Amino acid sequence: MPDNYFARYLPFLIHILMAGGIASAIVLLSWLIGQRKPTRAKLSPYECGMTPVGDSRQRFSVKFYLVAMLFILFDVEAVFIYPWAVILKKLKADGQGMFGLWEMLVYIGVFLVGFFYVWKKGVLDWGETAEGRKRS
User: Fold this and answer.
1) Torsion-angle region of residue 54: left (phi > 0), alpha (psi -120 to 50) or beta?
2) 34 half-sphere exposure, CB direction, 13 A CA radius
3) Nearest to 118 by CA among 58, 54, 74
């Protein structure tokens, strides 16, 4: 082992420099070698094969952002369940099986409380509700 503390990070630095260099070289070569023949079709914005209508800087409903945040939150919840499922057999072998089970049940319970709260608040309702039709 080298005596210098920072010498241990030299392979990491070389890795970062090489990755950055290769990425820069690929982008530069595609810019130098690539053909540029702009046409009206190539310069128009593409939105799912439909002709764009209106301004692209319009406001979106907050529901889009709420659903995106909930999607990330529920994905993170699922990510924590997988490692628990993998080590459950080891927990049982170590005599910690019931502790692991109750721990996960509490975790899923907290998750479900949050899910039902979001559901009751109407964040997941995208269609028109019966109350909305009565008010109109």
Assistant:
1) left
2) 9
3) 74
Confidence of residue 126 (pLDDT cuts 50, 70, 90): confident
**Cβ neighbour number for residue 35 with a 10 Å cutoff:** 4
pTM: 0.47
Q: Domain locations in the chain?
A: 5-37, 62-129
Q: Which of 111, 84, 78, 107 is nearest to 96 (CA)?
A: 84
**Long-range CB contacts for residues 89-93, cutoff 8 Å, separation at least 24:** none
Which of 71, 72, 106, 101 lies closest to 84, judged by CA? 101
pLDDT in tens, 6-38: 888 999 999 999 999 999 999 999 999 988 888
Please name which of 108, 86, 88 lies closest in space to residue 98, comparing C-alpha atoms: 88
